[in-house]
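Morning F.,

Quick status update on the modeling queue. The single chain you submitted on Monday has been processed. Sequence for confirmation:
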Amino acid sequence: MDHFGKAIEVGDGSSAKRSKEIFKQSFKEAKSDEVVALHKKHDQDRWKEQNKKHILYKPHLLEPVPEGRDGHSVFMVKHSERITFKCGLWAVVLTLTDEAGKRFKHPVWTLAVRVGRQFKSSPSGIRKQILDQFDEKTYFQWRQLVMTNKEGAYETLASACDWLGQKKKVGLNYISGGSSVRLLRELGILCETHYAFLYPHYKTMLEEKLLKDNRSEFEEWIETASRQDADQFFEMVANLKKQNPKLSDQQARDQMIELLHGMSRFGQHGQG
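Structure tokens below.
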């Protein structure tokens, strides 16, 4: 695990340097492997509690991201034992104390996603729960909805990093499952099989990803698409909105792009 402390040297200047200082301060009283062992049981128990099964209702499961501020602003909910950052379909929870109320020197962080009316943090567990109650098509529709709201993940993670920087803290997460590792790496978080740190200097990286993603794939594609391809695409988007009137134009476009990616058609101009 020692390479985690070295990895933050290659960040973004002074903030990366500050992350390294915080890392050393946070772990000076214990080796990093001992810290992970200390948190492992607590985090596993918390993971089990957060991912308990509950009855899902399809209208709630496939409810689109709200328009305007409700869907695109970060909301912070503070309790004595934890702080939660929410944006769109995503949430980051920083757990500050253990069950006895003893304050952690380094907060335990979790990235969670909305599943119906609750937030859950296990990709494989979420998939199993949806398939147990519905079918593969419903799971694909839910995943499509979530991944077209990836900016919500960037926003919540960046806000959590900002809080950690203000408090001179480094967050620690015990991870269970390869799907969690793949998701975090896709978002730019350095992790191994069972643990990942959330550094304050990640805030800059996450904000850059957010700016890049805001120039949508649709905007890049439409600049070079033929008139025929563009007309066909807009017709499919209109049909999708008829099926789900609650979708905004952007949400309908994003879902259609995801669908066409799955069919390996998007971006292949002039192929029907």
